[in-house]
């Protein structure tokens, strides 16, 4: 069973072909800088012995259609690619499913037009995602294609968690509410955590921390998201690489008045020039930690702020969940930074959270635990794999349809 996963972004297309019999990656790649002068395709092929042959190809790629055709040349190439004649399905990452999509969904014309209706909610992402869908439908006409939404996992949030305290019409007429993102990642690590804890997913309570360039925390009760830190857009919540996270909503108007910048410019500043970058000049946590360790006051402040905000969310979600079986760290920072993990859990022993500093130094691509023996709450580091989760959900839907004879 082979499943192709496509993540078509605004200036890049990522793809992975999985053999679902053993969940291994057969070929994978990323085409970046579409529409700009220096487009580069990085493509890798599994040699079957655990090693990958890597290919880099640069040429101008003017648009997604040209990019998709270039990718197809590599994907189906007799030596660099794989035989795609027995492809079972294609899974597409779609950023925003609004309230329309709570589950993986087989793509047809109606689904495409509903995703289009979500464009005002995700004006940068959904159009780019849809281009990938339309190109793949053309290419693989007889293969079922499935949409997996970043927002879907959080559709289980109760209204008191997802509503903003704004007049009701803002919700009913303009769809203003908290949607949350990174759902596929939170869902994947929740499943992995349940396995590691030897508990059924529907009994497990978790705080999941996806800490990458974008960052979000999710409170998971009995395997379902009941609250998450990102909101109507990914700007809300934790401090991120370049996003500010939670701020006073009056700030945008104030800054427009005092700086002379436009409303849009201040919006861009919150999105692209804030967070770690805005405080210490780097959005890379490795550099932030290096600055902090060398005594740089901005680096120290950025690290302090980043970890303090996470700690506040841990406290809030502890109160919301009542019982927490495990806190899960994932994403580039969560998986790789003992400093951040340690700081987020510092002095939380009254909540039953105690890190083992020796275990916390471990590195690896397999899940590992970093809690001490006396810690009531397990502390897990679980490398995320959104592409694999998309492939799993795609296959599950296709098999369920086959089983029910559809
Ligand atoms: P992601 O968005 O999940 O790919 O995460 C990317 C971020 O992970 C980078 O911006 C870095 O800040 C962070 N990162 C990657 N490796 C490390 C590391 N060894 N230590 C600390 N942070 C890291």
Automatic annotation (TrEMBL):
Known role: Catalyzes the formation of acetyl phosphate from acetate and ATP. Can also catalyze the reverse reaction.
What Enzyme Commission number(s) apply to this enzyme? 2.7.2.1
The protein depicted here goes by the name Acetate kinase
Q: Which family does it belong to?
A: Belongs to the acetokinase family.
Pfam families in alphabetical order: Acetate_kinase
Superkingdom in the source lineage: Bacteria
- Could you say which residues bind Mg(2+) here? 7, 386
Which amino acid positions bind ATP, per UniProt? 14, 210-214, 284-286, 332-336
Catalytic activity reported: acetate + ATP = acetyl phosphate + ADP
- Tell me the pathway: Metabolic intermediate biosynthesis; acetyl-CoA biosynthesis; acetyl-CoA from acetate: step 1/2
Q: Which gene encodes it?
A: ackA
